[in-house]
């Protein structure tokens, strides 16, 4: 009686994934982390030598990159402030990184002190850090999960008890979807997230692009392969498709600084130099 | 109070802050709108201006401004540079225009120093704090991962040590790295002892073929999992049967790393399986293999078609076993079967033959390799010898014998079922040859003949129903005047595929199956009807019809009624019907035929003895029978040929028979008359009539009618 040749079944694959969830991702401090490189570009000191080396290499090739990251952070701040003023009081921030200053909860709770925020990141160090600064904030939670596994994100988010999935939720995907390669089917992941929240919810996305970009920006993409994840640049059309049939808020999917600037003075002469699109859309009523 | 107290210009402060914002806001990420930043910096500008213009100078506000810049995340080094430069270049002009203090330059310098100190201290504190925080987070994350790993290991350890199934881990050299207590207990070793062993020492020659190759495939990474039933030997040498699953664990890059074996003790289940299998394949009385096992082995042999291989089967059956069972009881019968089984097994086992009990008193010996010269017959003879010795059961001494059907053939010649059918047939032949202790060897030609006969016999009833039989009539002619006195009715079978069959091809079968009664009656009725029509049309011819009666018909109590019925229905006068009987039909013991003959004779029909001289006629007895005619058997007439010295003897015999018949008042008909010379001699000897090709072959009724018609014509 001989067993069949072993082919891992779907169940076994799933079990493997579950095991990897049960165990935090291996903590490898010898490799740079996207979250800490980001922090460096934002002026933080939550980073190590290895992160700074990479950041400086990227900066040397693309002097604009630090500006891009600041612009992305500013876009997120403006979007969250806008949504909070529109009445959204719960957020799911996927790919939150290392929360330095100006985080979602600071912005949202600055306007509505009862706003609840669930942060999601894959980097165990970022997660540990987030927990340490948020431990006194009962309206926030941090979960470790992979953007490529929306089902896991959603079930963990529900478990925090902070989010009410029958009420509008602001789903934030700032500078994260470009870390998902096409092979992981980002369209499917976005659809899963859109389907999980009720009408009236909002989706905020900022995403790097190759459109209108100089060569050095494209080269920098290759360097990003040295962090745990590689960046996939996408077109405006591709980014727009991530919103599905949701209603885009004015001015639509645009270069980030053009999205509802605080004042016209803030808009750069060349808004495309930041190399990323941003947009916000609202889920229409069912039917 | 100061000599003059210059006003702090609010709009100036805003202008100053505007320059400041413009210069630094884009340098750093500020979680505020530009307006908010400018508002913040306006406040700082005012504080700096107030500090500069204060009556009692203190640089402390500048220190706080430096710190506040850091706290607002305005930490870029350029920020500090611009802030310091602006103090000397723009602060007075923008915010407190006209201020002119004697120590103003010194104050500005001290403000610059304090702002720089505050900035540096705050930045240093913040950097330390953030570094500490990120390091602590890294360690926490790592601890958490390690804790999770430790928890996982602890869980694994608990499973490993507590599992009821045996678990063993081996490296790629086969060295056992670790086993759990269950594994050790199963094998009767201590864990330490097992950790000294190599997996290879647990394999044995008796393992199922291919097991070791499977294991090698596994450690070479060709497969990920193997599951087998495997036997181990415990330390004390006893057997352990296991359900063994071995899984290959790989490195992240796919290279084989080690193997994990999961072992379940299935010894009891295995033993039960074996017992069930044995029971399923053996006869409970004798312990011999049963027919299932026999057929399994036979099929296996027949599958081996690669070689020119012959297989033999001896099908053995005890002679008279039923009588022993009936006379001495089933217990004795069973004891006898056990003894016979043992003897057969002993005789067969030495030569490696499989001896099986097929059921009842039937045994079979499978001879897996035989030559054409009759190896199988030697086996049959040795089996007969083994059975022949007297058997003692209790007080009974039994003389036992058996019969054997032997079949040997190439494995390519037919299926197991064919082979066993042939063996069965051959055993029947051996029995039919009479006597005990015989063997017969299968003869394909005989079997084919028998098969044809069997098929014909089976087809007879339907043939009768479908009216496939016809009757032909052969003239019997008077040797005195050459006139046709009678015709013999001869049955033919118009077979749909085999054509016209003569009686000797099917009458014997009809007698065996008993159909002869119905067939004979049909011939009788048909012949009488035909003869009745002739008689109506040609009354003067007085043509007699002669019909054969078989022995079984003669002894049939209905025969007299049947004959009377046939006569009544046809209107044939009884003296125009002759019934031919063989000597053996007449001589049957018990006297019944004689009574039947007398009753037949009393109806007025004539009786003839057919083929006279071929049987063992009791001539004295002949006198008492109501017989009218003797038909001399063909061989006597055949013998009467010219130039043959033996013909003189034949002629004398015929002469004697004719005289004898005439002495008894019987007429004589010679059969098989073929030549004119024979006619002349028979006439000279006084023989009354003749029948044979010389006078005409059997013919259709229409032909007979034609002959009668031409005889009636004048001059015919």
Automatic annotation (TrEMBL), chain A:
Keywords: Methyltransferase, Transferase. Residues 1-18 have a biased composition (Basic and acidic residues). GO terms for biological process: methylation. GO terms for molecular function: methyltransferase activity. Residues 1-26, 262-287 are annotated as: Disordered. The keyword Methyltransferase applies. This is S-adenosyl methyltransferase. It comes from Asanoa hainanensis. Coiled coil: none annotated. InterPro entries: SAM-dependent_MTases_sf, SAM_dep_MeTrfase_SAV2177_type.
UniProtKB/TrEMBL annotation, chain B:
Residues 152-222 form the PAS domain. Pfam families: EAL, GGDEF, PAS_9. Residues 309-444 form the GGDEF domain. Residues 453-712 form the EAL domain. InterPro entries: Biofilm_reg_signaling, EAL_dom, EAL_sf, GGDEF_dom, Nucleotide_cyclase, PAC, PAS, PAS-assoc_C. SUPFAM superfamilies: EAL domain-like, Nucleotide cyclase, PYP-like sensor domain (PAS domain). Residues 226-278 form the PAC domain. It comes from the Bacteria. This is PAS domain S-box-containing protein/diguanylate cyclase (GGDEF) domain-containing protein. It comes from Asanoa hainanensis. The lineage of its organism: Bacteria, Bacillati, Actinomycetota, Actinomycetes, Micromonosporales.
């Amino acid at each position: 009686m001989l067993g069949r040749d072993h082919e891992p079944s779907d169940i076994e694959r799933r079990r493997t994934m579950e095991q990897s969830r049960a165990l935090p991702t291996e903590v490898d401090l010898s490799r740079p982390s996207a979250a800490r490189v980001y922090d460096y570009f934002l002026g933080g000191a939550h980073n190590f030598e290895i992160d700074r080396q990479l950041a400086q290499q990227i900066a040397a090739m693309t002097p604009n990159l630090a500006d891009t990251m600041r612009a992305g952070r500013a876009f997120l701040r403006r979007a969250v402030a806008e949504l909070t003023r529109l009445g959204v009081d719960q957020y799911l921030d996927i790919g939150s990184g290392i929360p330095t200053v100006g985080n979602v909860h600071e912005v949202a709770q600055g306007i509505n002190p009862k706003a609840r925020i669930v942060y999601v990141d894959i980097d165990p160090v970022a997660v540990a850090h987030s927990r340490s600064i948020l431990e006194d904030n009962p309206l926030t939670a941090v979960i470790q999960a992979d953007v490529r596994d929306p089902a896991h994100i959603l079930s963990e988010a529900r478990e925090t008890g902070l989010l009410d999935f029958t009420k509008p939720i602001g789903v934030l995907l700032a500078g994260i979807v470009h870390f998902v390669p096409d092979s992981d089917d980002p369209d499917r992941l976005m659809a899963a997230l859109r389907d999980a929240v009720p009408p009236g919810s909002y989706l905020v996305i900022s995403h790097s692009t190759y459109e209108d970009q100089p060569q050095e920006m494209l080269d920098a993409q290759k360097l990003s392969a040295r962090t745990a994840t590689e960046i996939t640049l996408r077109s405006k059309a591709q980014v727009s498709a991530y919103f599905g049939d949701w209603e885009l808020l004015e001015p639509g999917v645009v270069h980030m600084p053009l999205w509802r600037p605080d004042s016209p003075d803030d808009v750069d002469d060349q808004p495309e130099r930041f190399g990323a699109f941003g947009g916000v859309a609202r889920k229409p009523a069912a039917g | 109070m100061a000599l003059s107290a210059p006003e702090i210009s609010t709009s100036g402060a805003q202008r100053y802050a505007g320059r400041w914002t413009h210069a630094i806001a884009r340098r750093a990420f500020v979680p505020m709108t530009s307006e908010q930043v400018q508002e913040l910096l306006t406040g700082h500008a005012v504080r700096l201006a107030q500090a500069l213009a204060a009556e009692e100078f203190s640089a402390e506000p500048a220190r706080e401004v430096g710190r506040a810049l850091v706290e607002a995340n305005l930490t870029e080094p350029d920020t500090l540079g611009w802030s310091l430069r602006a103090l000397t270049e723009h602060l007075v002009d923008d915010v407190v225009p006209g201020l002119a203090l004697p120590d103003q330059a010194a104050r500005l310098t001290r403000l610059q120093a304090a702002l720089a100190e505050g900035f540096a201290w705050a930045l240093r504190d913040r950097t330390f704090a953030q570094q500490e925080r990120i390091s602590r987070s890294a360690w926490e994350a790592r601890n958490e991962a390690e804790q999770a790993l430790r928890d996982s290991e602890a869980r694994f350890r608990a499973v490993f040590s507590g599992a009821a199934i045996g678990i063993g881990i081996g490296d790629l050299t086969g060295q056992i790295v670790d086993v759990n207590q269950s594994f050790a207990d199963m094998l009767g070793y201590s864990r330490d002892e097992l950790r000294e062993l190599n997996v290879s020492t647990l394999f044995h020659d008796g393992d199922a073929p291919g097991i070791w190759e499977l294991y090698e495939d596994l450690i070479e990474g060709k497969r990920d999992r193997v599951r087998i039933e495997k036997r181990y030997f415990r330390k004390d040498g006893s057997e352990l049967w296991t359900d063994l699953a071995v899984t290959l664990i790989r490195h992240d890059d796919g290279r084989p790393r080690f193997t994990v074996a999961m072992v379940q003790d299935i010894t009891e289940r295995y033993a039960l399986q074996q017992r069930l299998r044995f029971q399923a394949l053996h006869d409970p009385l004798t312990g011999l293999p049963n027919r299932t096992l026999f057929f399994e082995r036979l099929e296996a042999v027949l599958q081996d078609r690669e070689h020119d291989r012959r297989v033999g089967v001896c099908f053995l059956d005890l002679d008279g076993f039923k009588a022993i069972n009936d006379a001495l009881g089933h217990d004795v019968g069973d004891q006898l079967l056990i003894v016979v089984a043992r003897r057969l097994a002993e005789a067969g086992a030495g030569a490696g033959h499989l001896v099986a009990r097929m059921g009842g008193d039937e045994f079979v010996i499978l001879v897996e390799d035989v030559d054409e010269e009759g190896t199988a017959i030697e086996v049959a003879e040795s089996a007969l010898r083994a059975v022949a010795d007297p058997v003692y059961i209790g007080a009974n001494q039994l003389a036992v014998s058996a019969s054997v059907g032997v079949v040997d053939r190439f494995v390519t010649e037919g299926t197991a079922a064919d082979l066993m059918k042939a063996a069965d047939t051959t055993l029947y032949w051996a029995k039919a040859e009479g006597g005990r202790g015989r063997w017969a060897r299968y003869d394909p030609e005989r079997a084919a003949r028998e098969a044809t006969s069997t098929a014909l016999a089976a087809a007879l009833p339907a043939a009768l129903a479908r009216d496939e039989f016809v009757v032909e009539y052969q003239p019997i002619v008077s040797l005195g005047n050459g006139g046709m006195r009678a015709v013999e009715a001869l049955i033919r079978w118009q077979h749909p595929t085999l054509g016209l069959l003569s009686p000797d091809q099917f009458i014997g079968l009809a007698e065996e199956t008993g159909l002869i009664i119905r067939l004979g009656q049909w011939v009788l009725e048909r012949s009488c009807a035909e003869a009745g029509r002739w008689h109506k049309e040609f009354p003067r011819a007085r043509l007699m019809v002669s019909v054969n009666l078989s022995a079984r018909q003669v002894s049939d109590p209905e025969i007299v009624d049947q004959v009377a019925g046939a006569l009544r229905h046809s209107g044939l006068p009884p003296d125009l019907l002759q019934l031919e009987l063989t000597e053996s039909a007449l001589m049957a013991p018990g006297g019944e035929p004689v009574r039947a003959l007398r009753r037949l004779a009393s109806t007025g029909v004539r009786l003839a003895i057919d083929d006279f001289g071929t049987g063992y006629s009791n001539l004295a007895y002949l006198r008492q029978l109501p017989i009218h005619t003797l038909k001399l058997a063909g061989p006597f007439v055949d013998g009467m040929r010219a130039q043959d010295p033996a013909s003189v003897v034949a002629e004398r015999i015929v002469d004697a028979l004719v005289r004898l018949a005439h002495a008894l008042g019987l007429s004589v008909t010679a059969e098989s008359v073929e030549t004119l010379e024979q006619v002349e001699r028979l006439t000279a000897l006084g023989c009354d009539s003749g029948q044979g090709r010389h006078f005409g072959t059997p013919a259709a009724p229409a032909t007979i009618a034609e002959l009668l018609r031409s005889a009636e014509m004048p001059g015919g």
